[in-house]
Amino acid sequence: MARTGTSTSRIVGIDPGLNITGYAVVDFAGRELAIVEAGAIRTNPKAPLVERIEQIHRDLCELLAEFKPEAAAVEKLYSHYKHPRTAILMAHARGVVMLACRQAAMTVMDLAATQVKKSLTGNGHASKLQIQRAIQSTCRLKHLPEPPDVADALAIALCAGKHMTGAIPAG
Questions:
Q1: E strands, 2-150, where?
Q2: What angle (nearest 5°) sits at the alpha carbon of residue 52, between those of residues 51 and 54?
Q3: What is the pLDDT of residue 31?
Q4: What is the mean pLDDT of the chain?
Q5: Quick one: DSSP state of residue 13?
Q6: What are the tens digits of pLDDT across the range 76-123?
Q7: Which residues contact 93 (CB under 8 A, 6 or more apart)?
Q8: What are the residue numbers of the active site?
């Protein structure tokens, strides 16, 4: 899909994670959507924390500079109270993701996982597999998007597109 005029919006959805950060760059034009790029930034779990968050920031900055999305949607942090350390580690990844987006002068939307899931499947507590299948159907993909972090990033981008552009992708 060509980005012509003001009728096309480019949004990046980001599922922040310390091991895997999923991303999806999607163009919206009316009710049509096109996946421009989707993938994952993977860090070495054995590397020091500072190197891992630096890599996430650097790789995401390169992605944003290449694809120049107008807006970003980032999943809100959620952690069960029994695992506070997980929330703290995830907050590092989410923080550098948000910093990279602001440095690129983008509008940044925070979306709760339940909001994204409900927007896509009608169920705010849908499983990872349900999200993957919904993305496969909505985006007319031959295969389930892998890893699930990429499906989550696509779902985040689609939910943001629905809110920001009024687009309701045909599935």
A1: 8-15, 20-29, 32-42, 71-75, 107-111
A2: 65
A3: 80
A4: 89
A5: E
A6: 877 666 778 878 888 999 999 999 999 999 999 999 999 999 998 998
A7: 16, 17, 18, 21, 52, 53, 56
A8: 15, 75, 149
Strand partners, 167: none
What's the pLDDT score for residue 166? 63
In whole angstroms, what is the distance from residue 146 CA to residue 149 CA? 7
Is residue 2, in this structure, part of any structural domain at all? no
Report the C-alpha gap between 55 and 60 in whole angstroms: 8
Q: What percent of the chain has pLDDT over 90?
A: 72
**Domain count of the fold of the chain:** 1
Give the Cα separation of 38 and 22 in Å (integer): 8
Q: Looking at this protein, which amino acid is placed at residue 39?
A: G
Residue 46, helix vs strand vs coil: coil
Which range marks the domain in which residue 111 is found? 8-165
171 in any annotated domain = no
User: The domain that contains 49 carries what CATH number?
Assistant: 3.30.420.10
Establish if 56 belongs to a structural domain: yes
What local confidence, expressed as pLDDT, does residue 3 receive? Answer: 44
Which class for 2: exposed (0-12), middle (13-18), buried (19 or more C-beta within 10 A)? exposed
